[in-house]
Design goal:
Layout lengths: L2 H22 L7 H22 L3 H22 L3 H9 L5 H12 L3 H46 L1
Helix pairs in contact: 1-2, 1-4, 2-3, 2-4, 3-4, 3-6, 5-6
Length: 157
């Protein structure tokens, strides 16, 4: 299978996975395409950066940052909570396979495999958490600054 076909399959399955979770979480039918698109775009960013760098953490943190920013923008546009879009957008990054192989290695006492898979799983988890923190800190700082500016303006008038 060529790399292009493999990338297309990855994108299709990321969209379908996000779509499945959107349906599972009972997202409003009008919001499902936007939420599912977030999953596809998040995975596309991760996949493209992974192909360039060959590492897990940096592509994951950048893709997770994108997912959180996408969720903030989509939530404001659709007037729904951010989590509606963020959970669905970040689903393709969740290291389910890595967790499975890590736990399987523990059960089988294969410590070399445990270290290898556990390290990759931790990189995914740290990347997701880091991306969330970056965007959340920026959004909260922006909201705080905007509220403080509004208070200053109301005092001066």
């Amino acid at each position: 299978m060529s790399m292009d076909a493999y990338a297309i399959i990855q994108l299709i399955t990321s969209f379908l996975g996000a779509l499945g979770f959107a349906l599972f979480f009972d997202v409003n039918p009008r919001r499902i395409p936007v939420a599912s698109l977030g999953g596809l775009l998040t995975w596309a960013i991760y996949w493209a950066l992974y192909q360039v760098t060959g590492h897990i953490f940096v592509p994951c943190i950048i893709a997770s940052t994108f997912a959180a920013a996408y969720a903030e923008i989509a939530a404001r546009a659709c007037r729904v909570p951010t989590t509606v879009f963020f959970i669905i957008a970040v689903i393709p990054l969740v290291p389910g396979r890595g967790l499975f192989y890590t736990m399987s290695a523990v059960v089988n006492a294969d410590w070399a495999s445990f270290a290898l898979n556990g390290s990759a799983t931790l990189q995914f988890a740290a990347g997701i958490a880091g991306g969330i923190c970056i965007v959340t800190a920026c959004v909260q700082t922006w909201k705080y600054g905007r509220a403080k500016l509004a208070r200053l303006r109301s005092r001066s008038s």
